[in-house]
Amino acid sequence: MILDNFSLKGKVAVVTGCDTGLGQGMAIGLAEAGCDIVGINIVEPTETIERIGATGRRFLSLTADLSDTKVIPALLERAVAEMGHLDILVNNAGIIRREDAIEFSEKNWDDVMNLNIKSVFFMSQGVAKQFIAQGTGGKIINIASMLSYQGGIRVPSYTASKSAVMGVTRLLANEWAKHGINVNAIAPGYMATNNTQQLRADEARSEEILSRIPAGRWGTPSDVMGPVVFLSSPASDYINGYTIAVDGGWLAR
């Protein structure tokens, strides 16, 4: 039956940055589909732990700053030791810095690039090595952005990092498909999360954004649950190197 291809029963997913927002929504969606979850966050994700516990799935909470890539091998070693195997990686952890490009600081550049793309690459590399050692393939889902397609304003390092996410997703798909590893990305549109709080608080800017979204609303964490479950499941086995926009129609406008 086709619905069996969407089941993630018995799978283990690593989800970074799942304490709030889209990461929390994706972690919960994966758990509801049958996954046990390894959450990697800079803080203890208390609410996420409670909500995933309510699904009956296991949740292993690991605390780390992924902008320091040296922590990654130990994190993955702990995840495998506790869970036995890994099947899915969702590279969601990310930050944004807003400042006019003419004044943009080197720190704001490095902070964003280190977390949003450098850690994505090295997390993917570490998990792919585990997938290959297991001999079972796996799924990697990166989180891109509307700014993987567009330039935006006042977020130069965010635009650069999310454009890189789309490119690296394609490259990794090209190299790792032979190992049964699917690498794809989700590009959320304008979502009601911490990253967009400033935009939503600006009434004029918020109205400008909403007027261009055919769906007529900001997205929510529940809007990315279906796409991440699909890309994590056998139903997407022949999809590789693709970025799915979850944007309410923004790019079609």
Automatic annotation (TrEMBL):
Alphabetic keyword roster: Oxidoreductase
User: Which SUPFAM superfamilies does this entry report, sorted A to Z?
Assistant: NAD(P)-binding Rossmann-fold domains
- One MF term from GO for this chain? 2-dehydro-3-deoxy-D-gluconate 5-dehydrogenase activity
Any keyword Oxidoreductase? yes
Do you know which InterPro entries this protein is assigned to? 2-deoxy-D-gluc_3_DH (IPR011286), NAD(P)-bd_dom_sf (IPR036291), Sc_DH/Rdtase_CS (IPR020904), SDR_fam (IPR002347)
| CDD domains given in the database record | Ga5DH-like_SDR_c
Q: Where is the signal peptide?
A: none
Enzyme class comes to oxidoreductase
Lineage, top-rank taxon, reads Bacteria
Cite the EC number. 1.1.1.127
Family the UniProt entry places it in: Belongs to the short-chain dehydrogenases/reductases (SDR) family.
UniProt name for this protein: 2-dehydro-3-deoxy-D-gluconate 5-dehydrogenase KduD
Species: Rahnella inusitata
